[in-house]
Amino acid sequence: MEGTDSAYIPALRTTDFNYDLPVELIAQTPLEPRDASRLLVLDRESGAIQHAIFRHLGQYLESGDLLVLNETRVLPARFHARKAHSAGRVEILLLRRKDERTWEALVGGKGMVDGKLIELEAGPRGEIVEVLTGARRLIRFLEPLEPYIERIGQVPLPPYIQTPLQDPERYQTVYSNHPGSVAAPTAGLHFTRRLINQLKRQGIRFAKVTLHVGLDTFGPVTEDDPRQHAIHTEWCQVSAQAAQAINQTRRRGKRIVAVGTTSVRALESAASIASHGQVVAPFEGATDLFILPGHAFRAVDAMLTNFHLPRSTLIMLVSAYAGRERILAAYQTAIQQGYRFYSFGDAMLII
Other CB atoms closer than 10 Å to residue 1's CB: what's the count? Predict the structure, then answer.
């Protein structure tokens, strides 16, 4: 999957996407109920801002509009382990499955070199078979890991959340269905089943895609020129059924509303292979689409999203959609108004 054509990206620096956030605005726990979070509504043409509550989302949608949800589910991918033949503790965070018994993972512990044997607590033994960059390793287990994941794994939380999560389901969307992510598609965390049913009665339609979120989504861009950043690759799927609903929505003159940056990446990846007369085509596979200012959006008419980390690929994506200065101004308004930020924080609707 090709990334954004750099020929169309204006000259930008990574520091252009920086902002200062008071630490007390980083949400440590989710609100109850989910749809009680605040909603900042940004008009991307005028820059006008409205303040609402997420459960009132339907006031900004019309009958026939299509909400595109990412139904990925977060794997309980964090494991406690120890070094074989010693008491040395090891922490493992699964990133992606390479084959039946081999996983790419982040491994925390000393001396994690080729050939090192590790034992999961109440799980199988594994061997480090390749040292990758940083703390990344390839681990080959003696047996498939899937039977153990739900039983002994823990849901990983982002590094900026320090408060333990009492209910792991609060880091899953209510419509999550396909395990494969190490981080939640957080814009979807605000939906309740009751709100979804209410929107359906209003005539709002829904389509589901899948994009498995990788840990790199939390990583800041460290290069001075964001175009030099190696975007993370993630697996996504836009089914034939979802593609049909998306194409019908555009033909009927209604809006395609992406719920989260992950849905945006899935939609725009599917749009990149669409034939004439289509908005998207069915798509399944890896995408490394890096959306920066200058990207021509083809499949997104409105976007629901959370507030993102400075210097991240995600704030660059929403800046590509609404304009960098407009996004940073909206963020400053959110800070002044005491909005909650990041994964368990409040939401923004860009229309």
Answer: 17
Q: Which two tokens stand for residue 268?
A: 């725009």
Residue at 291: amino acid letter: I
CA proximity to 84, closest of 109, 105, 53, 64: 109
Q: Would you tell me the crossing angle of helices 313-322 and 324-336 to the nearest 10 degrees? A: 110
pLDDT at residue 4, rounded to an integer = 46
Coil, helix or strand at residue 112: coil
Q: Report pLDDT for 179.
A: 92
Nearest to 71 by CA among 256, 204, 235, 263: 263
Enter the tokens of residue 159. Answer: 């590094």
Average pLDDT of the chain to the nearest whole number:
94
As a residue count, the chain comes to: 351
Query: If you count DSSP H runs as helices and E runs as strands, how many of each does the chain have, helices first?
Result: 6, 17
- The two tokens of residue 13 are 């620096």
Strands 38-42 and 347-350: parallel
Provide the CA 282 distance to its chain's centre, in angstroms.
20
CB 333 within 8 A of CB 325: no
| Assigned token pair, 260 | 């989260």
At residue 214 the predicted structure's pLDDT band, cuts being 50, 70 and 90, is confident
Return d(Cα 350, Cα 195) in angstroms, integer: 19
With H, G, I as helix, E, B as strand and everything else as coil, classify residue 84: coil
- Complete domains list, the chain, with CATH: 6-74+165-350 (3.40.1780.10), 78-152 (2.40.10.240)
Full-model pTM: 0.92
Q: What whole-number distance in Å separates Cα of residue 173 and Cα of residue 182? A: 13
pLDDT digits (tens, 9 = 90+) for 262-306: 999 999 999 999 999 999 999 999 999 999 999 999 999 999 999
Identify the DSSP state of 307: -
| pLDDT tens per residue, range 51-75 | 999 999 999 999 999 999 999 999 9
CA dihedral 85→89→94→100, nearest 10 degrees, is: 10
- Is residue 295 within 8 Å of residue 320, measured between CB atoms? yes
- Kindly state the percentage of the chain with pLDDT values over 90: 86
Cα gap 278→295, rounded to integer Å: 18
